[in-house]
Specification:
Elements: H1 8-18, E1 22-25, E2 45-54, E3 57-58, E4 66-67, E5 70-80
Antiparallel strand pairs: 1-2, 2-5, 3-4
C-alpha cells in the first residue's frame, strides 16, 4: 500500500497496527469499477476482521514510499460472492 498520510484507508490500517487492534476488510479478487470505488460484481473474497501484524515501510529510490501490510484473519464474518455486496 502507498504511504499516504491523511488518506482514510492508510490511517485506519496504521491505527489498527499501532493499537494492536483489528480492522474490517474485504479483500476481493476482482478490480474496482470504472468509478474507482465500487467493486465489480464478479469479485469474491472474505469479509472479516483482520489484525495488522506487519507494517514495514519501504523507501525505494525511484518509486513512492510503500508499506508491505500483513493482515491476519482474526474473525471471519462471511464470504462475499458478489463484490457489490461489500460496497
Amino acid at each position: 500500500m502507498l504511504w499516504l498520510p491523511g488518506d482514510a484507508g492508510f490511517e485506519a490500517v496504521k491505527s489498527a497496527f499501532l493499537s494492536s487492534g483489528q480492522i474490517r476488510l474485504a479483500p476481493l479478487t476482482g478490480a474496482k469499477s470504472s468509478d474507482g470505488t465500487t467493486p465489480v460484481d464478479d469479485s469474491e473474497g472474505p469479509l472479516a476482521d483482520f489484525s495488522i501484524t506487519g507494517f514495514p515501510r519501504e523507501e525505494p529510490l525511484e518509486d513512492g514510499v510503500t508499506i508491505d501490510v500483513t493482515a491476519k484473519l482474526a474473525l471471519f464474518e462471511e464470504w462475499i460472492e458478489d463484490g457489490i455486496e461489500a460496497a
